[in-house]
Specification:
The complex is a heterodimer of chains A (about 350) and B (about 475).
Chain A lengths: L10 E2 L5 E2 L2 H18 L1 H9 L5 H19 L4 H9 L31 E2 L6 E7 L4 H11 L5 E3 L4 E2 L13 H12 L3 E5 L24 H19 L4 E5 L7 H20 L4 E4 L6 E2 L2 E2 L2 E3 L5 E3 L10 H18 E2 L6
Parallel strand pairs in A: 3-14, 4-5, 4-6, 4-7, 7-8, 8-9
Antiparallel strand pairs in A: 1-2, 10-11, 12-13
Chain B lengths: L5 H17 L3 H17 L5 H21 L3 H38 L17 H16 L8 H9 L1 H4 L7 H9 L9 H32 L6 H32 L17 H7 L2 H15 L6 H19 L3 H21 L11 H23 L3 H13 L10 H12 L6 H11 L3 H18 L13
Helix pairs in contact in B: 1-2, 2-6, 3-4, 3-5, 3-6, 4-5, 6-8, 9-10, 9-17, 9-18, 9-19, 10-15, 10-16, 10-17, 12-13, 13-14, 14-15
Classes of the chains: A alpha/beta (about 350), B mainly alpha (about 475).
Chain lengths: ~350, ~475
């Protein structure tokens, strides 16, 4: 009598696929992750490094640092580096924390505005660059839409908004290097920036050798942040470029609003020191209703308009349009953008 | 907790073996998978876990009450109450502010001040999906399609994490029977599962994210800064982005469920190869289409009446489908465009003396082209924040030809070609690949998948944007 196997060892499923056991699925998944993390170790290490400060970052770094060493020793990082090079993004996994700070000028910056409003025309347009963290994206796009009809302004590319970036963490995105490069290559005549939305904590990278900073808002933190704000302002304005710095808004979180106030209190005086070259746009009161945060704001015509996103921080399009109008007014005050029409 | 993140990978590598370990003992497996699903959901906002629990209890209580009653009038009242509760939940969290601003602005036109205030309500992730699944359950019990299950099974069905936040919308009749008996750990379709997860990751992390950050966001953010060619390619790019995003999510969700031993229904079937709008809705978000057909279109009367009655039902169903996607008039317009196209197609075919023309390759190609253009036109409203933004896009499409088009790069064109071209691949190709993969030894499978992971991680941008359908 032939023996009957109760369970076939293998079974063919739909469309000729061999079915496997759950144990096999678990082993494949584990092996895939093990090999996958070794192959992607440089990228994982960078992702761990640029995380916000905290235990999750510490754990991730504790895992990815030895992983990167093993990956390099086994040459398993090479395929990723090769692929990145082929894609034209060899610098993706590099962590750059150099902060380019200009030498202080021999003489203090000229506090008086230039006497003549420089004239721009469609043939010789004002080159405008808009950059910053994610908060700048919506107002930046509003500016681009608005200048679409003002042919005397020529935007340099789209809004250069980098999520999760700021002045505290050049390892996440090095604005100091990037701004220098854009100023050199693109030669804008006016720049709009917004920073600080991700800088409301005490962790900074790219500190000078031997320097340490205290908690957010401490004297050492404030001094270092002021140095960085000044570096950005000087990098932009050293060749007479006009800079509009958008201040941080009120948010739905009172603690966060207080931290934003601390940052605004650093930026505003630095802008004032460079009067005529830097214009600080205070957004706090633009979106505060009866002194408090409001997601919906009633316009003059009585329409209820949503100004702020669900996260209580970012802007909706109507808010972006409001900021854009303020910025264009400042550009019009500083430059002659309309006389060509006459 | 997004699928393509290290956090989810760790979560899943804990859940997968434990799930199989506990699977033979349903009384232990169910609390475990409910707990795991609630942990998964609480990663967004722990407070909304109570909302999910409340929705579970609400639907279960009504299902039991409906089942126990035999009086048709009472049953009808109970099912109406259950549906009203679900709709009220969705209405409050998703549509309250939309209702307030729309009412306020309507009356502001005639100078009347309405004393209604918006409340800045945060939309709980996935609420549209689990609310629809809850409605399915009570309505199916009302229709006597099946008897209500125990609370544990229903809670596992509603909260099962692979489908929880962005579908597919799994019907009770599809998942509840699978929860009745333990899955067989000897026969798991691992090849299909891993193939779906790998392709899903590629579509989301590489294709969707690349198109979003390299053309779509710029074009829709400031259309008047871009040439007509950029706007046109931007619209096509958005069509591919939303497909790659949602198709990618669904593939990962189906693959993860499969690894846990559960089968989910297919949600996409090459929608951009559709030859009509009706055909498109048989291929796009298929589980939503079925839901709308069975729980909206048919209860409205379906096609059991005059032509005009059918057209009305079609239009209403598509308007509701549009509003389901988002609390905004642009979503209603998106639904209206699809509704109009569906009505138009139906009217054309129902004309007296209409004879279906012979299907030829050229004819099908033309039909596909026209269908894709209509779908893309509707996407303009879906993606735009307002009608004026949509209008800007449409105007710019015709008024800036010949201007420089820096955003139309080889990479963008390639990503669009991959997104659309993948829908024209012979169906046997992925099946053959999966069959071949399934025959590889375990270490070789792991190496193949690791290389795929390397390619996806290296080609994708830093960070992962949330899936588009999370907001619906």
């Amino acid at each position: 009598m032939p023996t009957r196997r109760r369970h076939p060892r293998r079974r063919i499923g739909e469309d000729g696929r061999r079915l496997h056991s759950a144990g096999s699925a678990i082993v494949v998944a584990l092996l895939t992750l093990a090999i996958g993390v070794l192959l992607n170790a440089p990228g994982l290490h960078k992702s761990a490094t640029i995380q916000p400060e905290g235990w999750k970052r510490d754990v991730a770094l504790g895992f990815t640092e030895p992983l990167t060493s093993v990956s390099e020793a086994l040459l398993l990082d090479r395929p990723r580096r090769g692929l990145k090079a082929v894609l034209g993004r060899p610098e993706d996994d590099q962590i750059d924390t150099r902060i380019a700070v200009l030498e202080p000028p021999d003489e203090p910056p000229n506090p008086t505005p230039p006497p003549v409003r420089e004239r721009f025309t469609p043939k010789r347009p004002l080159r405008l660059w808009i950059a910053g963290d994610s908060l700048v994206v919506v107002p930046g796009q509003s500016i681009l839409r608005a200048v679409g009809d003002r042919r005397a302004i020529e935007p340099i590319g789209d809004v250069d908004g980098r999520i999760a970036s700021g002045l505290e963490r050049p390892d996440v995105f090095n604005w100091f290097e990037h701004i220098s490069e854009v100023m050199r290559k693109e030669k804008p005549r006016a720049v709009v920036v917004m920073f600080g939305g991700n800088d409301d904590h005490g962790f900074m990278t790219g500190l000078p050798e031997g320097r340490e900073v205290g908690a957010f808002g401490s004297a050492s933190w404030t001094a270092e942040y002021r140095r960085r704000v000044a570096a950005i302002m000087d990098t932009v304005t050293r060749s007479g470029v006009f800079l509009v710095w958008i201040g941080l808004p009120i948010t739905d979180d009172a603690d966060q609003t207080r931290r934003f106030d601390t940052i605004n209190a650093i930026v505003q005086p630095e802008a004032a020191k460079r009067r005529g070259l830097v214009s600080y746009l205070d957004t706090y009161f633009l979106f505060a209703v009866d002194g408090g945060y409001a997601q919906f704001v009633e316009t003059d015509s009585g329409r209820l308009v949503r100004m702020r996103a669900d996260d209580g921080v970012h802007f909706e399009r109507a808010a972006g349009d409001l900021i854009a109008r303020q910025i264009l007014r400042r550009l019009n005050q500083r430059f002659d953008l309309t006389s060509w029409r006459r | 907790m997004l699928f393509p993140t290290a956090t989810f990978a760790i979560f899943f590598m804990v859940v997968l073996p434990l799930s199989w370990f506990l699977m033979p003992r349903g009384e232990r497996w169910r609390p475990f998978v409910i707990a795991a699903s609630y942990v998964f959901y609480s990663a967004w906002d722990w407070r909304f876990v109570f909302l999910l629990a409340a929705s579970t209890l609400w639907n279960q209580l009504f299902a039991l009450a409906i089942h126990r009653r035999s009086d048709p009038r009472t049953r009808k009242l109970l099912v109406a109450g259950a549906v009203a509760g679900n709709v009220a939940l969705l209405g409050y969290f998703k549509y309250f502010d939309f209702f307030v601003t729309s009412t306020n602005n309507l009356f502001a036109v005639v100078g009347i001040d309405v004393p209604l205030e918006a409340r800045s309500i945060v939309l709980p992730v996935g609420i549209s999906f689990f609310t629809f699944m809850g409605i399915s359950y009570v309505v199916d019990v009302y229709r006597r399609d099946f008897e209500p299950v125990g609370l544990g099974k229903f809670a596992a069905y509603l909260s099962f994490f692979p489908h929880l936040v962005a579908g597919p919308i799994v019907r009770p009749s599809e998942l509840l029977p699978q929860l009745e008996a333990p899955r067989d750990p000897r026969y798991v379709d691992t090849a299909r599962a891993f193939f779906l997860i790998a392709t899903g990751l590629f579509m989301k992390v590489v294709i969707a994210n690349y198109l979003a950050s390299n053309i779509v966001d710029q074009v829709f953010g400031a259309p008047n800064q871009h040439s007509s060619l950029e706007v046109l390619v931007g619209i096509y790019a958005y069509a591919v982005q939303i497909y790659a995003d949602f198709f990618g999510y669904t593939n990962i969700a189906i693959g993860i469920a499969l690894l846990l031993g559960f089968r989910f229904p297919q949600n996409f079937d090459a929608p951009y190869a559709a030859v009509s709008i009706q055909d498109f809705w048989r291929r796009w978000h298929m589980t939503l289409s079925r839901w709308l057909r069975d729980y909206v279109y048919i209860p409205f009367g379906g096609n059991r009446g005059s032509h005009v009655f059918t057209y009305r039902n079609l239009m209403l169903t598509m308007l509701i489908g549009g509003l389901w996607h988002g609390a905004g008039w642009t979503f209603v317009a998106w639904g209206a465009i699809h509704g109009t196209a569906l009505v138009g197609e139906r009217w054309w075919r129902e004309r007296p003396g209409y004879v279906e023309p012979r299907s030829t390759a050229w004819r099908r190609a033309w039909q596909r082209f026209v269908t894709f253009q209509i779908v893309c036109f509707a996407w303009i409203f879906f993606r735009s924040d307002s009608f004026s933004d949509a209008w800007d896009i449409i105007v710019r499409l015709f008024t800036a030809w010949g201007e420089p088009s820096e955003l139309v790069t080889g990479g963008v064109v390639l990503a669009i070609a991959v997104g659309i071209g993948s829908q024209y691949l012979p169906r046997r190709l992925p099946l053959a690949l999966m069959a071949r993969f399934s025959r590889l030894p375990v270490p070789a499978q792991a190496v193949v998948l690791s290389v795929a992971l390397l390619a996806v991680h290296a080609m994708g941008p830093e960070g992962v944007a949330p899936f588009i359908y999370f907001q619906f």
